[in-house]
Design a protein that fits this description.
- With 174 residues, the protein is an alpha/beta fold.
- The protein has one domain: 3-Layer(aba) Sandwich (Rossmann fold), CATH 3.40.50.
- The protein is 39% helix and 22% strand.
- The protein contains seven helices and seven strands, in the order E-H-E-H-H-E-H-E-H-E-H-E-E-H.
- The chain has a five-stranded parallel β-sheet, sandwiched between helices. A two-stranded antiparallel sheet has the order 6-7.
- Strand 4, helix 5 and strand 5 form a beta-alpha-beta unit.
C-alpha cells in the first residue's frame, strides 16, 4: 500500500506532522511518503488570481500526489477553531482542479493540540466535509494534550489507551 501522510500545518515544529509521521509508521506493509505542505505554497486563492495564474503547478502536483496514493493520513492543526491558512489555501487551489480532490481514497483524519481540546473543532469540520470532496473517511481521532501523551524523545504515543485508539482507527485503512 502506498500511504501518503501529512500535517495540515506549515509549521516547521508541527506536532501534527509528528503525529501524522508516527501514525503512518504504524500501518503495516505500507510504503510511506510524508509530504510537507510548504512544498506547495501558492499565492492566496481568489478568483481574480485564478484568472491571471490559471491552475498553479503546485496545486497540480499536490493533486497528483493524492491520486498516486492508495490511502491518506492527514493530521489537522487548529488555528482559531479552523484550518490553518496554509492548508485552506492549498485545499482551495486544488479543489479548483477537481472538486473530488481526494479521489475516493481511504483516509484517516487526525488532529492534536497542546491543550485538552485536541483540535476537535477542526477535526469535526474536516471529517464532516471531506466526503463532499470524495474522501472515503475510514475514521478520525483527536489526541488531546499532545505533550502529555507523546514522547518527543522516542517519537511515539506514550499513553497506552490513546495508542490503542490510534491503532484501531488506522486498521480501517486496510
Amino acid at each position: 500500500m502506498k500511504l501518503l501522510a501529512f500535517a495540515a500545518s506549515s509549521s516547521s515544529k508541527s506536532i501534527n506532522k509528528q503525529l501524522a509521521t508516527y501514525a503512518a509508521s504504524l500501518v503495516p506493509n505500507a510504503t510511506v511518503e510524508i509530504l510537507d505542505i510548504n512544498d506547495y505554497e501558492m499565492p492566496l486563492f481568489s478568483q481574480d488570481k485564478e484568472e491571471v495564474l490559471g491552475q498553479p503547478d503546485e496545486a497540480k502536483a499536490f493533486y497528483a500526489k493524492l491520486g498516486q496514493a492508495d490511502a491518506i493520513i492527514i493530521s489537522f492543526a487548529e488555528h482559531n477553531g479552523s484550518y490553518t491558512a496554509a492548508y485552506k489555501n492549498l485545499f482551495d487551489w486544488t479543489s479548483r482542479i477537481d472538486m473530488k480532490l481526494f479521489q475516493n481514497k481511504p483516509m484517516v483524519l487526525l488532529a492534536t493540540s497542546p491543550g485538552p481540546g485536541g483540535a476537535k473543532t477542526v477535526l469535526t469540520a474536516a471529517a464532516g466535509s471531506a466526503p463532499y470532496f470524495s474522501a472515503d473517511v475510514k475514521g478520525s481521532l483527536s489526541i488531546p494534550s499532545f505533550f502529555d501523551n507523546f514522547d518527543n524523545e522516542k517519537q511515539q504515543i506514550s499513553n497506552p489507551a490513546i495508542l490503542d485508539e490510534l491503532k484501531t482507527v488506522l486498521a480501517q485503512l486496510k
